[in-house]
Amino acid sequence: MNSIQDRRQEYRSLFKQNVAKRLLVDKAVRIIVFSCVIIAIIPLGSILVEVFKNGLTAISIEFLTETPGSAGSGEGGIGPAIQGTLIIIGLSSMIGVPIGVMSGVFLSEYGDNALARFVRFFNDVFMEFPSIILGIFAFLIIVLVLGHFSVWAGAFALSLIMFPIVARTTEESLKMVPMTYREAGTALGLKKWVITFRIVFSAAKSGMVTGILLSVSRIGGETAPLIMTILGSSQFFSSMDTPMDALPLRIWRLSLLPYDSAQLQGWGAALVLIMIILGINLGVKYYFMNKKNGFSGQLIKQRRNVTK
Amino acid sequence: MTTLTTESTSMEASPFASPEPSSTIDTKYKMIAENVTVSYGGIDAVKNVTMKFKEKSVTALIGPSGCGKTTFLRCLNRMHDMTKNAKVTGKVMIDDIDLYSNEIDPIYHRRKVGMVFQKPNPFPTMSIYDNVTAGLRLNGVRDKKILDEIVEDSLKMAYLWDEVKNDLKKSAIELSGGQQQRLCIARALAIQPEVLLMDEPASALDPIATQKIEETIIELKNDYTIIIVTHNMQQAIRVSDYTGFMYLGDLIEFRETKKLFTDPKDELTAKYVQGHFG
Predict the structure, then answer these.
(1) Whose CB among A296, B163, B168, B277 lies 3.0–4.6 Å from A206's, allowing a Cys bridge?
(2) How is domain A80-244+271-292 classified at the architecture level of CATH?
(3) Is the ipTM of this complex over 0.85?
(4) Residues A188, B107: C-beta atoms closer than 8 Å
(5) Which chain A residues touch B if contact means CB-CB below 8 Å?
(6) How far is CA A180 from CA A51, B88, B117, in A?
(7) Domain span at residue B72?
């Protein structure tokens, strides 16, 4: 039987032998991680390059502001589609974001019961629903009942896509806020809703904003539910009860046409859609990051102070 | 009936009983915990503890890790309401109100009891000013003049005013750890509590910050009833008037600090204060 001292010596020698191998594994992991990133970026980058290359030539003032011309003429623009996309994103967010945020609050702050577990599960399933099914649902309960295509039906369908995403990300961001802040609030004699909305929210803000932006980007590109609800149009928005155009619909229609000029316009519309989504993302992020009371803004500031 | 009367008369006449009533007249108990038991999922963390806290005194709770001192402290303002599986039985009286009675609003009465936590936890998205006034603003106090006054008073009481008076709008998390903890003390004081609970307030701090916090505690004693949980026996000796020693959920001994440390009655207490375990 070896003495404990001998065994310790043996263990120590084991470590030494492993050093070279460990360094090698470390290096290999780094290379694998790095190459996966490259592989992921290649398609993304090439899509962007392709869209910019083809789309930029299509873009002009007329293209951005005018109604579509006759098919294949290469004239006219995508004005109604841009307007429609902004309207539908705005309306869907007005319905989807508050409901999603409140559901997230329920799941995170009051979610320690069977109902919440059921809602959470259902929410996760809902998030993966094919969007065309939600479109058909909106078609059945709004379009068929009213007897005509309508903007409301589109906003309803898209908000159904939005709110599970917002609910989930809100729940996750609120749960990330340490309990100690809630305890501090409780010890100050604050009511639970005050703690949630005034203290926990402000700490969770950046995560929640990211989730909302994610859902906005998602609905901005949805096509299938819109075919069933707002149909598409070549005119500017006239009323909530008539068909309306939107960029994904316009891109889809243009890409189906056999004319080069139409396909070029399709590329242009795709570029505009990407720029709108990018613009919303950067704008909102910048606004919240720059606000003095943003949590992540503060963390960045703190890090800067440390490095100073 | 007759036997009872005779008994009480004999009690009054007894030489042992006479000093007791006179001493209770002199001192008022701010807070009384009676037969408090806390269990987490059926396991008792605090067992049938009864303690009386005199007004304008500092009481220290000492004991090895896991002895239930923090758990007991958190009963005193119903912090366990937030913890799943925690069950509290017994009575906690503040003045003449039972905190655990169904008839009272715990939120209202919690305002009488301020709390400072082990780790500094200023609200990260708020400025120093907003942190101190959080308990007031979020409870509906809007008067800027009153808020300004309270901020100055509270920060002065917490010995932080001189260090931050020129940048009250600065974010709270830009302060050092010790400053953050004093900010948390100021925040707790701003709601004008009558009792201050402190859960190892200096355990995460360096000796200089610790000294400042201790000075604050001694100063605050003039106005507040303070109950402090500490790991550090020297700290208990330095700041407290009374000390309770807890072990495995039981309150082993509770006396004046000087007596507990110099002449412990219980063998376990003696071993602990002499540093044989813990």
Answers:
(1) A296
(2) Orthogonal Bundle (1.10)
(3) no
(4) no
(5) 112, 178-191, 194, 198-199, 202-203, 205, 292-295, 298, 301-302, 305
(6) 48, 21, 8
(7) 28-112+197-278
| CB-count exposure of residue A86 (10 Å: 0-12, 13-18, 19+) | middle
Q: How far apart are CA A68 and CA A78, in angstroms?
A: 6
| Tokens standing for residue A247 | 């960029």
> What is the rounded distance in angstroms from the CA atom of residue A57 to the CA atom of residue B196?
71
Residue finishing a domain among B146, B175, B192: B192
User: Do residue B107 and residue B201 come from a single domain?
Assistant: yes
Based on the fold, state whether residues B36 and B106 are members of the same structural domain: yes
CA B16 – CA B59 distance, rounded (Å): 26
| Structural domain ending residue among the three candidates B153, B170, B192 | B192
Q: Is there a contact between A188 and B187 if contact means CB atoms under 8 Å apart?
A: yes
Report pLDDT digits (tens) over A85-95: 999 999 999 99
Check whether residue B81 and residue B174 sit in a common domain: no
Q: Are residues B208 and B268 in the same domain?
A: yes
For residue A285, the model assigns a pLDDT of: 85
* pLDDT per position as a tens digit, B13-43: 333 333 334 444 456 899 999 999 999 988 9
Predicted pLDDT of residue A206: 87
Query: What is the reported pLDDT for B244?
Result: 96
| Same domain for B168 and B270 | no
* Average pLDDT of every residue of chain B: 87
Q: Residue A76 — φ and ψ, nearest 5°?
A: 75, -175
Q: Residue A157: which residues within 8 A CB-CB, separation 6 or more?
A: A131, A134, A135, A137, A138, A225, A226, A228, A229
Sheet holding B97-98, edge to edge: B43-54, B29-40, B86-94, B97-98
Q: What is the CATH number of the domain that holds B77?
A: 3.40.50.300
Q: Where are the alpha helices (DSSP H) in chain A?
A: 4-58, 61-65, 79-109, 114-127, 131-138, 144-146, 151-176, 179-187, 192-194, 201-220, 224-229, 247-256, 260-290, 295-307
Q: Where are the domains of chain A?
A: 80-244+271-292
Write the DSSP symbol of residue A308: -
Q: Check residue A67 and report its DSSP letter.
A: P
The pLDDT score that the predictor gives to residue A10 is 84
pLDDT reported for residue B7: 39
Are residues B55 and B103 located together in one domain of the fold?
A: yes
pLDDT tens, position by position, B90-99: 999 998 889 9
B76, with CB counted inside 10 A (0-12, 13-18, 19+), is buried
Q: Is residue B93 part of a domain?
A: yes
What parts of chain A have a pLDDT lower than 50?
292-294, 302-308
Amino acid present at A243: P
Q: Is the pLDDT of residue B6 over 70?
A: no
Residue B147 CA to its chain's centroid (Å): 25
Residues B138, B231: one domain? no
How close is the nearest chain B Cα to the Cα of A119, in Å? 20
Chain A, chain B: beta-carbon pairs less than 8 Å apart: 87
Q: In whole angstroms, what is the distance from residue B64 CA to residue B137 CA?
A: 39
CB contact under 8 A, A187 and B110: yes
Could you read off the pLDDT of B65-80 as tens digits, one per residue?
889 999 999 999 999 8
Residues B150 and B278 occupy one common structural domain: no
